[in-house]
From TrEMBL:
CDD domains tied to this protein: VOC_ShValD_like
Domain VOC residues, every copy: 8-154
Organism: Thalassospira povalilytica
Keywords: Lyase, Metal-binding
UniProt keyword annotation of Metal-binding present: yes
PROSITE patterns from the UniProt entry: VOC
Superkingdom: Bacteria
GO biological process terms on file: L-methylmalonyl-CoA metabolic process
NCBIfam families in UniProt: glyox_marine
One Pfam family matching this protein: Glyoxalase
Taxonomic placement: Bacteria, Pseudomonadati, Pseudomonadota, Alphaproteobacteria, Rhodospirillales
MF annotations from Gene Ontology: lyase activity; metal ion binding; methylmalonyl-CoA epimerase activity
Protein name stated in the entry: Lactoylglutathione lyase family protein
Amino acid sequence: MSSHYPRTFSHIGISVPDLEAAVKFYAEVLGWYVIMEPTTITEDDSDIGQMCTDVFGANWKSFRIAHLSTGDRVGIELFEFPDNQRPDNNLEYWKTGTFHFCVQDPDVEGLVEKIKAHGGKQRMPIRHYYPGEKPYRMVYVEDPFGNVFEIYSHSYELTYSAGAY
């Protein structure tokens, strides 16, 4: 059996300081479906408690989580940990790890305005790939909690298939 095939994306976990506010932001602004309302998970001998101890180590005590889903069925786990700390610099792109995710919307400009109206930020001007040739646009933004993400007007494949640089 060959293991050479592209895996699909299942979900991403995002830490936030206010779970209800984050669920509201992502549901209202990005239109993501709420799959599971905010729930508290406690360190105990339950299956989920044991799995979390495997991930976080002992003495994590508790956290809150909600599950959402994008229009193309990618899961979004929003986590609220008790001692949530916002980093001084929320775009440490030079460090190993995930530094952003990207959503797609043909109305980049409209989504940016909606993000700003709901407490988020626009981090840069909207840029055009293939100016004058194709209508591909992109921008970096952040949610009201400092999580950086990107918006593309067109699919990843279309944007890069001919070399966007």
